[in-house]
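Document type: protein sequence-to-structure record

Subject area: structural biology

Format: plain text, a pair of labelled lines:
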Amino acid sequence: MKITDSCIDCLISRVQLECRLAGADSLITQRTMDSCRHLLLSLKTTQLSHPQIASRVHRHAYEMLNTPDPFRELKDQGNAEAIAVCRDVRPGISSFRDFVLASVIGNTFDYGVKGHTVTTNFSTFFRQEFSKGLVIDDTDRILPLTGRVVYLSDNCGEIVFDRLLIQFLKSRGSHVTLAVKARPALNDATLDDARMLGLDRIVDCLTTNCESAEIGICPEESTPALKDALSRCTLVIAKGMANFESLFERDDLPPVAFLMAAKCQPVAHEAGVPVGSKIALLRE
């Protein structure tokens, strides 16, 4: 997917959030936002995808703010809250569809998307959204493909619900390679987050999507372990909008199950659903 004017506004609003989280004063905030906007506009007409442009902009913001991880506190809060909610709702989750839906609801742990707010009472929100189900539900077609899975993760908080789905897949005999972020990028889960949750002891292979701080994925630039896993898997599970934007238009991959909440208009339009829809969409 290519970048739109609404994407630009959303990206700059995230830079502003990064400035606030880093404790930047008004002068540094304005300089950072102006510099990031200039960089963004210079990249807009290139062949880079939206996630590739966004990754470059956010890396630039982190450099200007001299901070390696402005979202660290929010990420820790998200994981802690998700752990508590999972403990509460786990008894009511049993089928593959249930675990997928829980994972998709977890995708709403996403800070800085313009027009999207992370709820302050996630337990109540989870139960409300769970009762609504999926707007696109391809789970019956997805499940038979789960013999060998590459799981592309997204946010902290969300990854706690991913752990439930991964445990279900492992209980059925699936081979699972989990790819997280190599370095901090927004509130995305990194190797440290995955290990803190014990995912390195659950999955068959824990790796990263690439060597740098990329919010999406470019298969050609992925780690050797991930390239190998992609070449042998029966299914890619792609969590979140950045992975959707990175892979949706590609036709050179194994079947891909896009699990996400469509939190913005461009992504919702591409998926053919209203904004806010929760989907489990299979592309074969």
Notes: The longest strand covers residues 175-180. The mean pLDDT is 92. The two ends are 18 Å apart (CA to CA). Residues 5-65 form a domain with the Helicase, Ruva Protein; domain 3 fold (CATH 1.10.8).
